[in-house]
Every structure is written in structure tokens, then in C-alpha cells.
């Protein structure tokens, strides 16, 4: 099988709950999503997605990703997409870094591999261990009472895992976290996520004020080094995210930062291949697994679901169905969650059918 063409599309991804607010006054109402389709000489197609969360969440942005996708796609014409090791080798030899652009290509190749074998991706990456797994929702940064009310409303819909957006004034963040804990019950899992927004001093104050609350704290400062210093002396379980961008840093997260979990994102790691490797490493290190991407709709939700479904139930901490948060429904709003739980599609590859008419074509590399 050979890649004959790669189509690059865009689409607008809106936030289902109005406005998404993070630390540092970073606000999202709509995002610019990028979708790719890899076509082959045997008629099989594979789909991938990369949707950024603004331009200052992580060091990437849509136009830069699309330029990189052009170079990567040109290098891959004529390559067997089911030889995923070779695909990644060619991409590494074409562009250093640029993992955010490599990610949708890698996902699309897994989609093709699954379709070529008539098996879902989950069957190819270890097999389903979670027929039904709990999902989380993010609670946008707001007044404490508003965040508590958000949790009460979503708990009524079956959601009982939440990622609180904090990272501004530490005194306000302590109040936000306390109100959120009070809105839950003994089964509620809450992660207070600063997205690297606190200064070292603010992080120290926030963690001291949250002492005794049943919460995890995620990425208090921008760098791993500052997260280590901020967390020193705290008993709160630490999750690292934005500063962990390769497998080596997972060891640092455990043995230097004393983190209990790492939030894996396809875009940071370059796709499904490296995310699976990182997931397996976390499990072997007896750490909890969180898996997602920056943002997205049906396609990235499907990819996430396959990783979540093949993760040990006792290891899975947080995973979302982004297509519940957004209106990025380019595959008939599938996969679909139910009462706070998700499952992986059982069809070949990603297990979804993308509706091309909902996408805006940007350019094609190779045969049209």
C-alpha cells in the first residue's frame, strides 16, 4: 500500500458551554481546527486531527502546523502508511521537532492500519481493558460559586471527574477549589489545574491553602523545575502536563518532582505511537495515566477513546470526550458518551466516518 495524497482541511471548533477561561486571562470561544485525510492507492483513507487551544497555550499555532504538514506530507508520498515505524522515521528525517504536525499524520496512519486489518485501533494497541470508562470535564475559571454550580450541574448528568481551571490569584484559587470540593461527594475526583499559570510564590501559597482538600494539583508553574520547588513540602498529589514533552521527562516527573501522574497529549508527543509508549511507561512506573490532546472534536475524541479503553482501569485518572465540550461534530457526534462514561468505537481503525462536507479544504499534497 502507498500514500498517494494528503488533504489538509480546517474547521471551526466552538466551546459548548460558551467561553472557556484559563489562567492568565486566556479565553477560548472558538478554535481553528486542522484535519487531515491520507489517501492510498488501495482506496483506504485515514483521518487525523490537531486543534490548538489558542496560540499561547503551547508553543504552536494552526498556520505553523499547516506549513509543517505540507513538508511532512510531501516526504511521505509513496510510503506505506501501515508501516508506522517507517512513517515516523521519515517524518523525523524531514523535520526536527514539530510534533504537533506529526501527530495527525501518525493518527491517520493508525486509522488506515486498522481499516486494512478490519480491526479497531484498540485491538492493535493491547486490547480493550475498559469497555466503559469514566470521563472528566474541565471547569472554566470563574467565581467560586459559579464553578461549584457547574460541578453540581454536570454531576447531575453523570460526570464525577473534574479539572478545575485555576492559576490566577492564589487566594481566589483556594476559594474556587474549596467550593468545587464541596459541590462533589466522596467519589468525586478533582484536579486543580493551573496550566502553568502561577508564579513560584503564588503556587506555594495556593498549595499551602489547599492542604487538607481532597484534590490533585496539576502543572502549578510553567517549568518542571519550578513545579518541583512549588510542590516541595506539599502532600497534595502532583500531576504534570505542559512541561512533559518526551519519555525521558516522565522519569523526571516521578523521581524528581514526585508526581503521581502525567497528562499525555497526542500533540506534545507526536501522535498515537508515542502516546501509547508513554502510557505503557507510566503504568510500569506505577503512575496514573491522563490522556487527551489540546482540544478537538469527534476525530481526536475517537483517538483518545482507544487509548483510554486499553489503559488499565486502576491506572486511568482523567480522560475527556472533547466532542461533549465542543461542537466539533464532523463524524456524526461519534463516539458518544453516556452518563459520564465513554467507550471506544468497535469499527475498523478509529471507528468513525468523517463527513467531508463539514470541512473547509485548504490544500492537497500529491495526487488530488
From TrEMBL:
Pfam families membership: MR_MLE_C, MR_MLE_N
Keyword Chloroplast: no
InterPro entries per UniProt: DgoD-like (IPR034593), Enolase-like_C_sf (IPR036849), Enolase-like_N (IPR029017), Enolase_C-like (IPR029065), Mandelate_racemase_C (IPR013342), Mandelate_racemase_N_dom (IPR013341)
SMART domains from the UniProt entry: MR_MLE
Known cofactor(s): Mg(2+)
GO molecular function: catalytic activity; metal ion binding
UniProt entry keywords in alphabetical sequence: Magnesium, Metal-binding, Plasmid
Domain Mandelate racemase/muconate lactonizing enzyme C-terminal, chain residue ranges per copy: 144-237
Family the UniProt entry places it in: Belongs to the mandelate racemase/muconate lactonizing enzyme family.
Name of this protein: Mandelate racemase/muconate lactonizing enzyme family protein
Lineage of producing organism: Bacteria, Pseudomonadati, Pseudomonadota, Alphaproteobacteria, Hyphomicrobiales
Amino acid at each position: 500500500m502507498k500514500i498517494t495524497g494528503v488533504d489538509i482541511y480546517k474547521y471551526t471548533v466552538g466551546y459548548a458551554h460558551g467561553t472557556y477561561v484559563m489562567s492568565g486571562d486566556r479565553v477560548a470561544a472558538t478554535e481553528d481546527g486542522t484535519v487531515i485525510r491520507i489517501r492510498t492507492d488501495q482506496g483506504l483513507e485515514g483521518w487525523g486531527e490537531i486543534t490548538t487551544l489558542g496560540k499561547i497555550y503551547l508553543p504552536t499555532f494552526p498556520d505553523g502546523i499547516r506549513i509543517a504538514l505540507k513538508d511532512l506530507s510531501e516526504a511521505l508520498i509513496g510510503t506505506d502508511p501501515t508501516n508506522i515505524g517507517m512513517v515516523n522515521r521519515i517524518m523525523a528525517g524531514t523535520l526536527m521537532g514539530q510534533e504537533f504536525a506529526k501527530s495527525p499524520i501518525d493518527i491517520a496512519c493508525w486509522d488506515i492500519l486498522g481499516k486494512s486489518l478490519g480491526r479497531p485501533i484498540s485491538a492493535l494497541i493491547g486490547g480493550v481493558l475498559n469497555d466503559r470508562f469514566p470521563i472528566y470535564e474541565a471547569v472554566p475559571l470563574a467565581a467560586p460559586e459559579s464553578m461549584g454550580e457547574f460541578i453540581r450541574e454536570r454531576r447531575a448528568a453523570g460526570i464525577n471527574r473534574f479539572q478545575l481551571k485555576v492559576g490566577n490569584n492564589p487566594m481566589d484559587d483556594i476559594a474556587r477549589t474549596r467550593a468545587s470540593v464541596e459541590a462533589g461527594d466522596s467519589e468525586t475526583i478533582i484536579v486543580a489545574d493551573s496550566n502553568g499559570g502561577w508564579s513560584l510564590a503564588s503556587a506555594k501559597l495556593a498549595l499551602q491553602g489547599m492542604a487538607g482538600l481532597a484534590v490533585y494539583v496539576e502543572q502549578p508553574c510553567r517549568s518542571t523545575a519550578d513545579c518541583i520547588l512549588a510542590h516541595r513540602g506539599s502532600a497534595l498529589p502532583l500531576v504534570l502536563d505542559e512541561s512533559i514533552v518526551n519519555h525521558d521527562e516522565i522519569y523526571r516527573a516521578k523521581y524528581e518532582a514526585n508526581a503521581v501522574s502525567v497528562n499525555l497529549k497526542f500533540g506534545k508527543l507526536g501522535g498515537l505511537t508515542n502516546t501509547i509508549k508513554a502510557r505503557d511507561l507510566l503504568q510500569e512506573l506505577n503512575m496514573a495515566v491522563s490522556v487527551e490532546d489540546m482540544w478537538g472534536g469527534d476525530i481526536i475524541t475517537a483517538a483518545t477513546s482507544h487509548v483510554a479503553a486499553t489503559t488499565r482501569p486502576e491506572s486511568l485518572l482523567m480522560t475527556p470526550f472533547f466532542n461533549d465540550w465542543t461542537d466539533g461534530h464532523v463524524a456524526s457526534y461519534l463516539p458518544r458518551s453516556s452518563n459520564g462514561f465513554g467507550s471506544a468505537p468497535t469499527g475498523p481503525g478509529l471507528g468513525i466516518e468523517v463527513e467531508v462536507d463539514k470541512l473547509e479544504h485548504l490544500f492537497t499534497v500529491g495526487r488530488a
